[in-house]
Amino acid sequence: MAAPDYAGPEGQRVYAVGDIHGRLDLVDDLLGQIEDDIIARPLPTIGLCFLGDLIDRGPDSAGVIERLLSLGSFPAKTLFLMGNHEEVLLRVLNAEPHLAYDWLGFGGDACAESYGVSASALQAMNEDRVAEALRAAMPPAHIRFLQDMGDTFGFGDYLFVHAGIRPGVKIEEQQPQDLRWIRQPFLSDGHDHGCMVVHGHTISEGVERRANRIGIDTGAYRTGILTAAVIEGTDLRFMTTAR
User: Fold this and answer.
1) What are residue 174's phi and psi, to 5 degrees?
2) Summary mean pLDDT of the chain
3) Full-prediction pTM beyond 0.85?
4) Do strands 196-199 and 213-215 pair parallel, antiparallel, or not at all (unpaired)?
5) Do residues 81 and 149 lie in contact, with contact meaning Cβ atoms separated by under 8 Å?
6) CA–CA separation, 101 vs 38, rounded Å?
7) CB-based contacts of 185: which residues, under 8 Å, 6+ apart?
8) C-alpha dihedral over 44, 24, 165, 15, to 10 degrees?
9) Rg from Cα positions in the chain
10) How far apart are CA 39 and CA 108, in angstroms?
């Protein structure tokens, strides 16, 4: 049970999924569990929110995006938040100087390979050619999907973001840089944010529950454990691919 101070809107439920990082196998597993849960416990309004970092590091970024694009008939309304990895890929696609090689080094190589583009070949190109090669390989629908991502989602007393928030700054004044990238001082701050922040971005061993935040990045790409938080009224529970 969540603390009674925090609750979702009455008669609604949301499933919030942590960082996927190219693990299509885990997405399929967790989506199957979520669909079974919805069938067993139907409600008129159900949401499915992905907290970003869908891509990079794991073996099938392209497959993950294609799978998520296919959720139009899923029995929940979907919402996708932008992680720092999606932000960087979009900047690489725009040929931003001095970025492509860093992206390849922190997991972009696996993303490129999932689209049939040799990461070693990209290393030998300038930024303009890297952008051209990736844009030629990626379906336009995948690029639009990344561009259309949001940064926050409020659900009653809960706020969903990718990385966290800047302590002491009003929610409506938060900057995308912090929402997608922040670690400190957010992770160690114990103050009441006026909401319960549910986030990914920083890997923890199991769900990390604090008085003012809940971290659900359980390192799926390397642990095989993808986690979702499930919120309905004052009830808070978790689903995972761990067996």
Assistant:
1) -65, 145
2) 96
3) yes
4) parallel
5) yes
6) 42
7) 167
8) 20
9) 18
10) 37
